[in-house]
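Running co-folding for flavin-adenine dinucleotide.
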Amino acid sequence: MSGILVVMEQQGGAWNRISWETLAAGQQLAAAMGQPLSAAVVGQGGAALAGELGAKKMDRVHVVGHELLGAYTADGYTAALEQLIRKSEPAIVVFPHTYQVRDFAPKLATRFGRVLISDAIGFRVEAGSPTFVRQLFQGKLNADVKSEGAGLQFASIQAGAFRADQVEAGSAPLEDFVPELKPDDIRAKPSEPFRESARAVDLTAADLIVAVGRGIKEKENISLVEELAKALGAELAASRPICDNGWLPMERQVGSSGQTVSPKAYIAIGISGAIQHLVGMKGAKTIVAINKDANAPIFEVADYGIVGDLFEIVPALTEEAKKVKG
Ligand SMILES: Cc1cc2nc3c(=O)[nH]c(=O)nc-3n(C[C@H](O)[C@H](O)[C@H](O)COP(=O)(O)OP(=O)(O)OC[C@H]3O[C@@H](n4cnc5c(N)ncnc54)[C@H](O)[C@@H]3O)c2cc1C
């Protein structure tokens, strides 16, 4: 048993973006442990996408295909990956922490008598074995988690924890793997996949984002932050409670159930920094936080922090921005 296997995720022939972040994590883990790296793509459209994977630095790409893997099912993916793992014998299997992975990966780990270390934000390698880091209490504490005993390990990686643009290029041979599956193995009947409604605002393309949270207190006060965004030429975004209240449209929500953004700068105003918000914005190059609570978790990811009352700070910033922009 040796090597790292990254299970990439695709849906309907398009990559799920967090898969690349997980591949970057896999490359770093393989380098730190001095072990080979392989990746697997499962399901319909996998063969077409595998070519892209073959141009990344790793030792092998497994293209796992079968007519019963056309639509995702936990039974199908678990059975197919169990067979691939028994054949290729990796030491560690790494997944992106998506809804789909949450559905089948614990079941897959159980097939090997192991647990899934879920939603890891990083790792350290000591004496050749990894310790994963997970966040507790909405990011207030970091916990070190290690698999006990020898044997296969399973871990999933949190969105935004690694950078997709750090995936190293290279070349890797593609290998087809056809699992043995029978229709009876698959008990679920997949229906139409969930489709998000089209968005009028694409925050993912914005260079500069000003985001507002519950610290703004009332809908009427949003205009304060809107003015700052306008003065800076930034897109306006929000934490979930602001969108849940209908104060801004849902398409402006950043976080695990909103958009994942990676602008050059992200200014978080009156946002506490709950983990579900952080996963959507911590890939920003520079983070500025304004919050009256010096212990707010947002300051842990912020490059610049202002501890104070947003109702004093934001109008002053808007004035300065207007002066600078002339
Ligand atoms: C399954 C699930 C999915 C979720 N998805 C998302 C998601 O996609 N995006 C998301 O954002 N959240 C999401 N959440 C909610 C998340 O857990 C938090 O509840 C939310 O992010 C908190 O929003 P907030 O920071 O605006 O509010 P709060 O946590 O209430 O923080 C408000 C902050 O404003 C500060 N403040 C108050 N007054 C002032 C002032 N005058 N000046 C300066 N600072 C002030 C406070 O100190 C506080 O830190 C999700 C939750 C669950 C369970």
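Result summary
DSSP finds nine helices and 16 strands in the chain.
The longest strand covers residues 116-126.
Job closed.
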